[in-house]
Design goal:
Layout: E1 4-5, E2 9-21, H1 37-40, H2 47-66, H3 71-76, H4 82-104, H5 119-123, H6 135-141, H7 147-162, H8 171-187, H9 189-194, H10 201-213, H11 218-226, H12 230-251, E3 268-269, E4 272-281, E5 299-306, H13 311-322, E6 331-333, E7 337-340, E8 355-356, E9 365-366, E10 387-392, E11 400-408, E12 428-433
Parallel strand pairs: 1-3, 2-4, 2-6
Antiparallel strand pairs: 4-5, 5-12, 6-7, 7-11, 8-9, 10-11, 10-12
Helix pairs in contact: 7-8, 7-12, 8-11, 10-12, 11-12
Pfam families: CYP38_PsbQ-like, Pro_isomerase
InterPro entries: Cyclophilin-like_dom_sf, Cyclophilin-type_PPIase_dom, CYP37-like, CYP38_PsbQ-like, PsbQ-like_dom_sf
Protein name: PPIase cyclophilin-type domain-containing protein
Length: about 450
């Protein structure tokens, strides 16, 4: 029996009144490696260090053996020509250059067994710095929208990187990016609006006009850049990208791929959903106040779940929320995650297969983890603070838990080279908490 959640926009306010029990060492919900991998990683001497010491000794011996034994030898060899002396100096320089190349590049060295490099070190040689670092950015990139809109999005997102330059900011390059986005938007207006369903086209036209000339649109962003005010540019850019995302959502009312036949029985979410969790602390204490606010006994966490990249996982989670399965559930805090209690009824939820959408692919992979060291990265990365994912099934890591989920407390200080979590590509991430902070 198919249980689809066909609506592209799903919204639900959930008052689970969950109690948070801080600092409870609950790690068994994850894979065996998740809670122990950081403890296994330790700093070791790099093979280059031993190679450098060895080469230094060899060079020292060579200098000693080729040097003159005493002053008499020096006097008896004063017939050496300037040309010969220059040739020896040249050979010495060449030898030094070759030694430097050997040390600083992965050329084979005598006595160095390349098989002695551990697999852990090899993983760190393939970092990726283009992974989204915020939930908003990851969710925006996950929308399967018109190719022209994605080109505009790429051009605008590049400005975010340019704004991070601490010294003299390249406003000329930023201006060029906005003008490029404007040209695409103007030239491809018909194709952009034609890709929006007929019943949403009027709304799309209004959003398009706002995106071009409205307050917070591209023209406004261009003015901010010309004023060379980084704060105004940042605000204008955020507004433009937000309007762009709304247009892209109108272009993607459902899934852009067909689900495998064997998974049609599962509930599914074919768009986006928004859920609000209301939580309180188990000991009755208050949450830290926001700026200018008052201490609160109840905090609200807003979670956006994504059916475009994880339709089965998000659909199962949405059904559990609607059915009230998480009302009154306890949350436990570890140093890596805040996870829900595993005490929900065994008949709740579906044993959904592990579901991960790789970047550059058109449909998710099922029962398959990603090999990050080989360059495989998910559309919805775990390496974002507040990522929401399902725990692994107790039976098999090829399946997610039917009901147990967790908020991931990503910390770049405990990540590999490139800022990727060591567990990246191992869990079904299906959304992000956009106003989440562990200081609550």
């Amino acid at each position: 029996m198919s249980l689809p959640l066909y609506s592209a926009i799903f919204s639900h306010r959930l008052s689970i009144n969950a109690s948070v029990t801080p600092c409870v060492p609950r790690r068994d919900f994850l894979s065996n490696d998740f809670s122990l991998r950081f403890n296994r990683i330790r700093r070791e001497d790099h093979p280059t260090s031993s190679a450098l010491n060895k080469l230094t000794r060899i060079l020292a011996k060579k200098d000693a053996s080729t040097g003159f034994t005493n002053q008499h030898d020096i006097l008896t060899k004063d017939y050496t020509s300037v040309l010969e002396h220059g040739a020896k100096r040249f050979e010495s320089i060449i030898a030094a250059i070759l030694i430097l190349v050997q040390i600083t590049s992965p050329l084979p060295l005598a006595g160095w067994n390349k098989m002695s490099i551990s697999p852990a070190k090899a993983v760190l040689y393939s970092p990726d710095t283009k992974v989204p670092r915020t939930g908003e950015l990851a969710l925006r990139r996950a929308i399967p929208a018109n190719a022209s809109m994605k080109a505009i999005q790429d051009s605008l997102e590049d400005i975010s990187y340019l704004l991070r330059i601490p010294q003299r900011k390249p406003y000329g390059t930023m201006e060029g990016n906005v003008k490029k986005a404007l040209k695409i938007a103007m030239d491809e207006k018909e194709s952009v609006l034609a890709s929006i369903p007929a019943d949403l086209r009027d709304k799309g036209s209004d959003l398009y006009a706002s995106f071009i000339d409205g307050k917070g649109g591209l023209q406004f962003l261009l003015e901010c850049i010309k004023d060379k005010d980084p704060d105004r540019v940042s605000v204008g850019l955020a507004s433009s990208l937000d309007t762009l995302a709304q247009l892209e959502l109108l272009q993607a009312p459902g899934l852009s791929f067909l689900l495998p036949e064997q998974y049609l029985k599962y509930p599914r979410l074919s768009g986006r959903g928004t859920i609000e969790f209301s939580i309180k602390k188990g000991d009755g204490s208050t949450f830290s106040p926001e700026a200018g606010g008052e201490p609160r006994k109840i905090a609200t966490i807003q979670v956006v779940i994504d059916g475009y990249s994880a339709p089965l996982t998000a659909g199962n989670f949405a059904k559990l929320v609607v059915d009230g399965a998480y009302n009154g559930v306890k949350l436990s805090c570890t140093d890596q995650a805040i996870l829900s209690d595993s005490g929900i009824g065994k008949n709740s939820g579906y044993g959904v297969p592990l579901e991960i959408m790789p970047s550059g692919q058109f449909e998710p992979l099922y029962k398959t983890t990603l090999s990050v060291q080989d360059g495989e990265l998910p559309v919805l990365p775990l390496s974002v603070y507040g990522a929401v994912a399902m725990a692994h099934s107790d039976v098999s890591e090829e399946y997610s838990s039917p009901y147990q989920f967790f908020f991931y407390l990503y910390d770049k200080r405990n990540s590999g080279l490139g800022g990727l979590s060591f567990e990246e590509g191992q869990f079904s991430v299906f959304g992000y908490a956009l106003n989440f902070s562990c200081n609550h």
